[in-house]
Fold this sequence. Notes:
Elements: H1 9-51, H2 55-103, H3 116-126, H4 139-155, H5 164-168, E1 172-173, E2 180-181, H6 184-201
Antiparallel strand pairs: 1-2
Helix pairs in contact: 1-2, 1-6, 2-3, 2-4, 2-6, 4-6
Amino acid sequence: MGNYDIENPGEMALYHAHCDFMPFRSVIDTTKASTSALREYYSNLSKEARQQGDYITEDFAMTSGMLYGARAIPLAYSSLLLIMVALLEEAFNTLCRAYCIRCNYQVTYKDIAGQGLERAIIYLEKVADVKGIKSDANWEYVKTIRDARNLVVHNGGRVTGKIDAFEKFGFYIREEDKQIMFEHDDIIRMYEAIMAFMERVFRIAPVNS
């Protein structure tokens, strides 16, 4: 905590954001380790069964390994995306609460129409007088990450409209059904972009400070 100016709303909110996001990095790494271990288990089981002439077990291991790689692992990384965006939205809500408490505003972010990141940013701009969040270099990418999360929640991860923004930022979209697929490196790239984004925008001083 000594590395943050807790009297400053942005620094206080950034401290709380780091308290969530830094442990979350371990969750990402643990997910990679556990999924890799299980894939290796099925691979080894298949090889051992083949050497022993146990074709039933070999077939089971090969089928299970393929299904795990094709279905379970993408679901695991989609789950990480949902958690990450939820943490991001809560970090921005915390920033709004910090300004509200510190500056004794009578209006809270919940009084603003809308939801999620957009509502928090409107509050920060209109009430707290924090300008330039959407001018940050990472904003468009962060917004696209949020849009990908919304597709996972509301449409099974399938893109129904234009895919230009997703392609621009290197999202893999499966050709046969337009579903966005994620791997460990994708989640890490998103995580690092969000962390850099918060590091900068949470430290923007209000115009009339």
